[in-house]
Amino acid sequence: MVSIIIPSYNCKDYIIETLHSVLNQTFSDYEVLIVDDKSTDGTPEVIKSAINLDKRFRLVLFDKNQGVTVARNKGIEMASGEFIAFLDGDDLWEPAKLEKQIDFMKKNGYPFTYTYYEKIDSYGNPSNIMVTSPDEVDYRKMLKSNYIGCSTVIYNQNALGKIYMPNIRKRQDYGMWLKILKITDKGYCLKECLMRYRIRPDSISSNKLGLVRYNWRLFRTIEGFGVIKSLYYLFYNIFNKIIQRSR
After folding, report:
1. Number of neighbouring beta carbons within 10 Å of residue 104
2. Counting CB atoms within 10 angstroms of each CB, which of 27, 87, 201, 225 has the fewest?
3. What is the pLDDT of residues 136-147, one digit of tens each?
4. Buried b or exposed e, range 121-151, using 16+ CB within 10 angstroms
5. What are the beta bridge partners of residue 112?
6. Tens of pLDDT, residues 198-219
7. What is 2-205's CATH topology?
8. DSSP single-letter state for residue 52
């Protein structure tokens, strides 16, 4: 079984489409753990109407806003499946995403995998921009750039155990991939575009200066690197982003 972790916060305009992308999966052996981080726009009511009486879905409501890291970690804590998959409340999966990726993992014995994805705008229109990833990554390679889209990832918790995201406001997914790669040698890419990543102008990830700050905190505080080593990998991340943008 796959445990799908969906954090939600003020995404009522997108969450139904996201949940339908789960319901439309060709793979049906899953549970969905939706953790709402005290939305103020009616998102929980929209979720309840979308999941109806489907017993595979569970909605957890926080009584105060705690941030996406706490929401995702609550989902991980509750997860009972062999596999854990992440899907943000405004992203979309292609219908065969779970089936193809679980088959890829089982056939090859891979405990940590990810896929390509496409960027879409806030209205769901395609950008014709596909984000690719390296065939495989290890810890040292990942320090140079976050090559992995969060909503593409599946990891085998039976093989790796429950792994939680570091409690920082942004780059917590990047920190988690680094934690995983300290446990297993490599992560592997299924080279197909199986997720659509929604670009919203109000998202935290749209603040590029903020992302630099959180990368710095990740290297200094979470990874425990000194100033020189942190600067080295920070500049590597910035350089790789510039290269990716110029392609």
Report:
1. 18
2. 201
3. 999 999 999 999
4. eeeeeeeeeebebbeebebeebbebbbbbbb
5. 155
6. 997 765 444 566 678 899 999 9
7. Spore Coat Polysaccharide Biosynthesis Protein SpsA; Chain A (3.90.550)
8. T
